[in-house]
């Protein structure tokens, strides 16, 4: 597909977007009232969106068309990981290299990208680590999905609110409250194909001082599959089947404390995943593995001080440790170890002001220090040898201001400015300007323009295995920059239908991609490409009842990439259908069909997942049965190191049976 | 910003922590509108004792001190239909020309002055979370993740002879029994 003709003057792009809006305008028909007073209580309690803005805005006044998936939907659709949740959202394409899940957002995904262009928040707090900047989305996400109240996905440039990494989107995972009503103790057990077993136990209780506490522990084990890799099918040395290498073991602990205005959270997870077909390693050796360890702590106070004062103070600390073990036949056959150690802590303050009756302003400061961002690579005895020993530290001070000017009862202008100053790379401003409002009842329109950036991370700059280890450093890497404009229209028909049309255009510069330097045959990260992308996303949601809904979405992106060697145009199409409906009293069917257009050499494909679950079997028991990839399409994905690994086989049809008890 | 890594680093950190100290702020206007809508909705799901119920010739009375930050937004509730009667928004806490209050809203700012306020039976007290909520409050409004939520205290509700519908209890963030 040819990319759209490009205009050199940005106004013409805005005109095109306005044209799209005008095309949408004549659809005006029966109107629905959106007056706050006419909304039911449950909708009023959902009206605020936390991560799209630092300000407490009604959803109709947020600058982005935020997508929210609730715990009810997560359960009804049988999602196993955060990546599964994101995969149902319009414009998101999840792929997997069987070690991590990767989110392609708005048509963009790059080789060697560990989700660094998506910012991952838990309860509004950044959890991307400080060596790889990675957003952990698959089974490696450190929190059990049962503990998630909802997932918010905010597409667009979010750096004016959240700083680095919010290049294409922000994902905010909101965890459950320890003081929620209902039976306090929970047990969950599931068994699934490929020898997968999971057990979770959790409880909530109150201390004598009235504080509510939630504790949960999860253990997950997976034997995995024997997988065929055509690249390794080289008889007689190998038949291309990796045996006994796809195993996984994960343990997670979650603790949340809430007392009055104080909330504290502690997360710990430790996960080991076998590597089944990585290039450069001895094929089908069960010692090849990744280990990811997270420990995240967060304590915050939020409330009013004195008369009519509101403030949020937060202190946080995090630790992430990566360990890769690789069997490499130099010869001799040697166990190689790859370590990444990341430690950080910081404090944040946000205040809300009302400088004039129609203005609301949030002002914040965020200071973070990275005490360790270290990388080590060595061969273990008996052939011990150190290749890399790189220790780094860094500090960041960020200040931001966001203003919401409600110049009309139905219209608001949102402006945000943020400055991030890093010790190593200096300062950078990001801004966002948005107009949002309801031109008539039932309609919500948004127009926004913003910039975002991503610093080159420690791994991209300093990972090197000299002299011939296959990787070389590039400390001169510059930050990636994105500038984007987006317009969206939401139309509510009656009380059950909502149609969303969003169109955007963005330009990315200095994109960091990994490539093979032909001069020395080594992999290196470079500010290699610039990108222009246009996109159109359409979604229709129909929800006739609380427990039944249908969501259809279609997204199409046209991208023109300009690298040092060549310009290249490509397009991508995504179509998704999900529905949840009661099939008989007490039983709910959840269905997902996800269609993906061709990606490079990979053909387009469609996969379908279905889940049948009970609302209650009595005695607090709930049962669910899922079939993933129902029609056994078994599509391949692109590996993250797609330069060396072009195709990664996926699971194919898989079954899961799950029993939950609350007492 | 080299000073963050220089020998002056502790001083720099001190400056940052000073900057993190509270600044003067005010409630947001839209929050007031939302709060008004939630209060109105909450009143739809509360059962008052028969002796004090509103009727066709006796309006329901929501009492909001004029000092409440959401008072302006709450005044928009005046005349709204509530069951088989209408809602009247009054600015007194004690029985006045509008009759006794069916519901009373106590703001964070008024919490200290109104600590001793003891409503009689049949009065729904809704307070802010400030200082853990008013001792007589059956419903405490909370700000959680930039959304409004509420918790329910069934002990004070029983003392006030109020009954809450199952929907209200289902939507409560916390229930204290």
Summary?
The complex is a heterodimer of chains A (663) and B (177). Chain A is mainly β. Chain A is built from 6 helices and 32 strands.
Head-to-tail CA distance between termini of chain A: 56 Å
For the record, give the distance between the C-alpha atoms at the N and C termini of chain B, rounded to a whole number: 53 Å
Please work out how many helical segments of chain B DSSP would assign. 5
Approximate strand percentage of chain B: 15-25%
Largest sheet data of chain A: 22 strands, antiparallel, barrel
Oligomer: heterodimer
**SSE-based structural type of chain B:** alpha/beta
The tally of strands of chain A reads 32
Taken from the alpha-carbon principal axes, the silhouette of chain B is: globular
What does this structure look like?
Chain A has 663 residues and is mainly beta. Chain A is 6% helix and 56% strand. Chain A has six helices and 32 strands. Chain A has helices at 10-24, 41-44, 71-76, 82-87, 159-162, 458-462, and strands at residues 67-70, 92-96, 101-105, 118-122, 125-126, 148-155, 169-175, 185-192, 196-206, 212-222, 227-234, 238-242, 248-259, 262-274, 289-304, 310-329, 333-356, 359-379, 385-390, 394-408, 411-422, 426-437, 443-454, 480-493, 497-517, 522-545, 548-563, 567-584, 587-596, 605-614, 621-628, 654-662. Chain A has a 22-stranded antiparallel beta barrel. A five-stranded mixed beta sheet of chain A has the order 1-6-7-4-5. Chain A has a two-stranded antiparallel ribbon with strand order 2-3. In chain A, a hairpin with a 5-residue loop joins strand 18 and strand 19. The relative contact order of chain A is 0.14. Chain B has 177 residues and is of the alpha/beta class. Helix content of chain B is 24%, strand content 23%. Chain B is built from five helices and ten strands. In chain B, the strands form two sheets. Chain B has an eight-stranded mixed beta sheet. Chain B starts with 8 loop residues before the first helix and ends with a strand. Residues 1-8 and 13-29 of chain B have low confidence and may be disordered. The interface between A and B is large, with 61 and 58 residues.
């Amino acid at each position: 597909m040819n990319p759209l003709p490009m205009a050199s003057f940005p106004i013409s792009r805005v005109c095109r977007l306005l044209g799209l809006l005008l095309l949408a305008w004549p659809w005006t028909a029966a109107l629905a009232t959106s007056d706050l007073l006419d909304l039911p209580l449950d909708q009023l309690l959902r009206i605020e969106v936390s991560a799209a803005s630092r300000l407490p805005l009604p959803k109709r006044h947020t600058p982005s068309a935020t997508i929210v998936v609730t715990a009810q939907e997560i359960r009804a659709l049988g999602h196993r990981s955060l990546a599964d949740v994101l995969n149902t959202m319009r414009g998101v394409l999840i792929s997997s290299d069987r070690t991590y899940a990767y989110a392609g957002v708005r048509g963009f995904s790059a080789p060697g990208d560990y989700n660094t262009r998506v910012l991952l928040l838990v309860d509004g707090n950044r959890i991307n680590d400080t060596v790889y900047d990675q957003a952990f989305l698959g089974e490696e996400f450190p929190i059990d999905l049962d503990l998630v109240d909802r997932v918010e996905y905010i597409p667009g440039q979010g750096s004016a609110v959240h700083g680095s990494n919010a290049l294409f989107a922000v994902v905010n995972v909101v965890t459950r409250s320890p003081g929620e009503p209902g039976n306090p103790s929970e047990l969950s057990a599931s068994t699934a194909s490929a020898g997968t077993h999971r057990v979770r136990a959790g409880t909530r209780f109150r201390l004598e001082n009235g504080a509510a506490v939630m504790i949960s522990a999860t253990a997950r084990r997976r034997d995995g599959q024997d997988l065929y890799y055509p690249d390794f099918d080289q008889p007689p040395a190998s038949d291309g089947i990796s045996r006994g290498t796809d195993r996984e073991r994960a343990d997670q602990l979650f603790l949340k404390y809430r007392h009055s205005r104080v909330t504290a959270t502690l997360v710990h997870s430790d996960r080991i995943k076998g590597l089944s077909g990585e290039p450069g390693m001895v094929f089908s050796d069960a010692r090849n593995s990744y280990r990811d360890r997270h420990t995240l702590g967060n304590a915050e106070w939020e409330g009013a001080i004195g008369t009519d004062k509101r403030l949020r103070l937060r202190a946080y600390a995090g630790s992430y440790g990566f360990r890769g073990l690789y069997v490499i036949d130099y010869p001799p056959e040697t166990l190689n170890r790859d370590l990444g150690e990341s430690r950080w802590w910081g404090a944040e303050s946000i205040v809300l002001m009302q400088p004039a009756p129609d203005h609301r302003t949030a002002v914040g400061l965020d200071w973070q220090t990275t005490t360790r961002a270290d990388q080590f690579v060595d061969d273990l005895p008996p052939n011990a040898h150190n290749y890399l020993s790189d220790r780094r530290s860094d500090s960041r001070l960020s200040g931001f201001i966001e203003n919401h000017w409600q110049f009309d009862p139905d219209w608001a202008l949102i402006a945000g400015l943020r400055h991030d100053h890093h010790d190593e790379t200096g300062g950078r401003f990001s801004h966002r300007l948005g107009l949002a409002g309801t031109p008539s009842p039932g309609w919500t329109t948004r127009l926004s323009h913003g910039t975002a950036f991503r610093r080159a991370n420690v791994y991209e700059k300093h990972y090197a295995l000299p002299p011939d280890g296959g990787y070389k450093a590039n400390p001169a890497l510059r930050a990636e920059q994105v500038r984007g404009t987006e317009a969206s229209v939401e139309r509510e028909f009656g009380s059950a239908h909502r149609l969303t049309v969003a169109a955007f255009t963005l330009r990315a510069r200095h994109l960091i991609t990994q490539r093979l330097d032909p001069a020395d045959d080594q992999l290196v990260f470079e500010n290699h490409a610039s990108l222009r992308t246009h996109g159109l996303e359409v979604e229709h949601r129909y929800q006739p009842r609380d427990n039944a809904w249908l969501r259809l979405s279609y997204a199409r992106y046209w991208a023109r990439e300009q690298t040092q060697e060549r310009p290249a145009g490509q397009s991508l199409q995504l179509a998704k259908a999900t529905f949840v409906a009661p099939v008989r009293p007490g039983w709910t069917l959840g269905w997902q069909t996800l269609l993906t257009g061709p990606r490079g050499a990979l053909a387009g494909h469609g996969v379908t997942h279905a889940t049948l679950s009970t609302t209650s079997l009595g005695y607090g028991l709930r049962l669910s049965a899922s079939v993933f990839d129902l029609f056994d399409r078994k599509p391949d994905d692109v590996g993250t190191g797609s330069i060396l690994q072009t195709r990664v086989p996926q699971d194919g049809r898989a079954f899961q049976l799950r029993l939950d008890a609350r007492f | 910003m080299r000073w963050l890594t220089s020998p002056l680093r502790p001083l720099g950190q001190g400056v940052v922590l000073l900057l993190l100290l509270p600044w003067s702020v005010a409630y947001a206007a839209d929050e007031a509108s939302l709060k008004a809508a939630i209060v109105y909705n909450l009143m739809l799901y509360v059962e008052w004792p028969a002796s004090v119920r509103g009727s066709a010739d006796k309006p329901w009375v929501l009492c909001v001190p004029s000092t409440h930050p959401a008072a302006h937004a709450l005044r928009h509730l005046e005349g709204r239909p509530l069951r088989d009667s209408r809602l009247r928004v009054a600015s007194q806490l004690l029985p006045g020309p509008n009759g006794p209050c069916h519901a009373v809203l106590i703001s964070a700012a008024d919490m200290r002055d109104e600590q001793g306020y003891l409503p009689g039976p049949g009065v729904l007290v809704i307070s802010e979370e400030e200082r853990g909520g008013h001792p007589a409050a059956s419903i405490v409004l909370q700000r959680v993740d930039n959304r409004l939520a509420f918790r329910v205290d069934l002990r004070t509700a029983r003392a006030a002879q109020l009954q809450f519908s199952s929907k209200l209890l289902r939507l409560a963030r916390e229930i204290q029994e």
